[in-house]
Amino acid sequence: MHGTPHLLAILRRELAAAGxxxxxVASALGTSEQRVETLMANGAMKLRDIDKLVELLxxxxxxxxxxxxxxxxxxxxxxxxxxxxxxxxxx
Length: 91
Description:
Elements: H1 4-18, H2 22-29, H3 33-42, H4 47-57, H5 61-68, H6 82-90
């Protein structure tokens, strides 16, 4: 399993382990709890929202990417490259 669905599974696991509620996530994303449920269920979350969840969890985005299967190339800047960003946006 690779890509956004795997990434969201990791984030759901981490959110649950950290004790975050659906309300906490909705507040961090600036949306409703129902919308968060829909986004998480259908795997169509935008990269900016994924980034907000990574920040909420205080995780390292590079570690999450490597767990999903998108390792950051040696010497690459810490920000996501356009090609990696597109992979997540396309699903």
